[in-house]
Specification:
Elements (H helix, E strand, L loop, with lengths): L4 E6 L5 H12 L2 E4 H9 L3 H24 L5 E4 L10 H7 L1 E7 L2 H8 L12 H11 L9 E4 L5 H13 L1
Parallel strand pairs: 1-3, 1-4, 2-3, 4-5
This protein binds shikimate-3-phosphate.
The site of shikimate-3-phosphate has 10 residues, from loops.
Organism: Paenibacillus silagei
Cofactor: Mg(2+)
GO molecular function: shikimate kinase activity
């Protein structure tokens, strides 16, 4: 039996948290939502961490929590969209599990994040911010073992596809 962790990476609003919850339930694995672990431990929101220490402070907490959470087996780990950015994080994810990148078209992401107040990187003109972040991260998610474009799929379809690939 395959006990490898499943690690979900990808741009904001590609469904990592929702799909992660479905996979964890199906597999009876522990669900780890990295952003939730960070805010729980810090006792403050992601927006507050960014406001008080800047993006760098958030990234170093994120990398430390990621490395800790990757230890062990039988976990589904949903990461924040920028968890792939710090040097070394991609390698450590590949070492500790099956890495799945979720993608979606730019328009889909813009539509999904509209009205969202909880993502500090999208403050201001969210559509422009999404476009520029997607451009900056064009290559950032390519390291994954498998990639799923969620644009035309619902969360159940995405989860089933991941399970097929994981068990293959
Ligand atoms: C971020 C994505 C967010 C969160 C933080 C930064 C990013 O998570 O970690 O706001 O850099 O893409 P989601 O991908 O779950 O929105």
């Amino acid at each position: 039996m395959d006990d490898r962790n499943i690690i979900l990476v990808g741009m904001m609003a590609t469904g990592k948290s929702t799909v992660g919850a479905i996979l964890a339930e199906e597999l009876d694995y522990e669900l780890v939502d990295l952003d939730a672990v960070i805010t729980g431990r810090e006792g403050r929101s992601i927006a507050d961490i960014f406001a008080e220490g800047g993006e760098q402070a958030f990234r170093s907490i994120e990398s430390a929590v990621l490395q800790e959470m990757l230890q062990g087996e039988r976990k589904v780990i949903s990461t924040g969209g920028g968890a792939v950015l710090a040097p070394g994080n991609a390698e450590v994810m590949l070492e500790h599990g099956f890495v799945v990148a979720l993608t979606a078209s730019e328009d889909t992401i813009i539509e999904r994040v509209s009205g969202d107040e909880n993502r500090p990187l999208l403050a201001g003109n969210a559509a422009n911010r999404v476009r520029s972040i997607m451009e900056q991260r064009r290559e950032a998610y390519r390291f994954a073992h498998c990639t799923v474009d969620t644009t035309e799929l619902n969360v159940a379809e995405v989860s089933q596809y991941i399970l097929l690939r994981y068990r293959a």
